[in-house]
Amino acid sequence: MNPSPGLVGYWPLNEEHGARDVSGYGNDGVTFSTDVAEGPGGETGGAMYFHGNQGSRVEFPNNGALDARSYITLQAWIYPQGTGPGPIFNYQPAGSAGHGVHFWIHPTGSDLFIR
C-alpha cells in the first residue's frame, strides 16, 4: 500500500490492515465491536463492518500529525443497513466537549448530515 504524499493519516479499514495507519505517522486506530465484510468491489475482507450501535466504532488517536484546522478530506464507502441516526465520522478537537467535523446518517437511516 503506497498512500499519496502529504497524507497525514490513511486507514484502509479492511481485513489486511484493520485500523492501522498506513501513512507512516503511527496514528493506529482502536476498534470496538467491528467485523470485516465484503468490500465495495466484492473482495472478501475488503471493508470493516460496523454494527450500528454506539459501541461499534473505531477511535483514532492524534499524536500531533492530524491537523484539521484548515482542511480535512474524508473518503468512505458507506452501505447503510439500519434505520436510525448515527455517526459515520466525528472529529472532536483536543480539549473540546463538542463536535468538530461530523458526518452522520440522520434521521431516517438513509439521509446524510454533515457539519
Looking at this protein, list some descriptive labels.
115 residues, mainly beta, two-stranded antiparallel ribbon, 24% strand, ConA-like_dom_sf
Structure commentary:
The protein has 115 residues and is mostly beta strands. The model has no long low-confidence stretch (mean pLDDT 81). Strands 5-6-7 form a three-stranded antiparallel beta sheet, with no helix packed on it. A two-stranded antiparallel sheet has the order 1-4. The radius of gyration is 14 Å and the shape is globular. The protein has a domain at 1-67. It has strands at residues 30-32, 34-37, 47-50, 57-59, 86-91, 101-105, 112-114. Strand 6 and strand 7 form a beta hairpin.
SS-based structural class? mainly beta
**Which strand order does the major sheet show?**
5-6-7
* Percent of sequence in beta strands: 15-25%
Alpha carbon gap, first and last residue: 31 Å
Number of strand elements: 7
Uncertain spans: none
Q: What does the radius of gyration come to?
A: 14 Å
How helical, in percent, are the residues? under 10%
- Spell out the helices and strands N to C: EEEEEEE
So how many helices?
0
Shape: globular
The average pLDDT score comes to 81
Question: Major β-sheet, in short?
Answer: 3 strands, antiparallel
